[in-house]
Amino acid sequence: MEKTLLSFGHGFSARALSRLLLPQDWRIIGTTRSEDKASALMAEGIEPRIWPGADMVPALDAATHLLISAAPGAEADPVLAELRDEIATRASQFEWVGYLSTTGVYGDHQGNWVDETTPLTPATKRGIARVAAEAAWADIPGLPLHIFRLAGIYGPGRGPFSKVRNGTARRIIKPGQIFSRTHVADIARVLAASIARPNPGAAYNVCDDDPAPPEDVIGYAAELLGLPIPAAEDFETAEMTPMARSFYAESKKVRNDRIKDELGVELLYPDYKTGLKALLAQEIGGA
């Protein structure tokens, strides 16, 4: 049977995975909500489906692998809300199912380390919704589910450089605040490694080796660009949207030993300095 990946919510991370799989003669069907994005996916060799809307049963019938990137809503996971029965009846057909979650499921650990065995105690509505979605997917009998808990994602077109250049980057200082992050190319490598070495029921943290305060990342981006480092702003008095402020509700360092020990992944970008240098080189080179 032809290797066929059906990707729900075929966005930034899923497109990076596609760039690894397409040269290996995979068929990839990806959902998107807009015609414009569908055209962009088609140009990359993806078979787009406008969903919600399209009949997904033929794509499910063809799929050997599923990837779910679509974020859960306030009420439920959107894929399961519409297609749970169709997926459940085909559970034995799939060789691998990947669900992209977030390290937000661990909640706040006041800057201490977490790993995949840490209890899930989310502190935000987004984290609570992710825990519920993980459980709902795991509840489907016989589904070869793999959960990937992603740290803050950056990569081409999604980094701090544009904000530093246009003067909108902010160095919000909250003492003790620390985040983990991951380059999108390393997400793709982890997913590809898991597809090659399935272990149904496994959960993996996907992040680099260097958790760091967010203000350090902005400062280093400014240094690379040769621009002034943005002034420090105190978290308690800084004007921020509720959404922006919510990102500071959690502080933790995330361990990534399992992706190395079980999947044999060697990170391309083991720390934010390596990743940002590479991003800037790509921008300058027009890559």
Automatic annotation (TrEMBL):
Stated name of the protein: SDR family oxidoreductase
Coiled-coil boundaries: none
Enzyme class, UniProt record, top EC level: oxidoreductase
EC number: 1.1.1.290
Taxonomic source organism: Yoonia phaeophyticola
An example molecular function term from Gene Ontology annotations: 4-phosphoerythronate dehydrogenase activity
Keywords: NAD, Oxidoreductase
InterPro entries xref list: NAD(P)-bd_dom_sf (IPR036291)
Keyword Oxidoreductase: yes
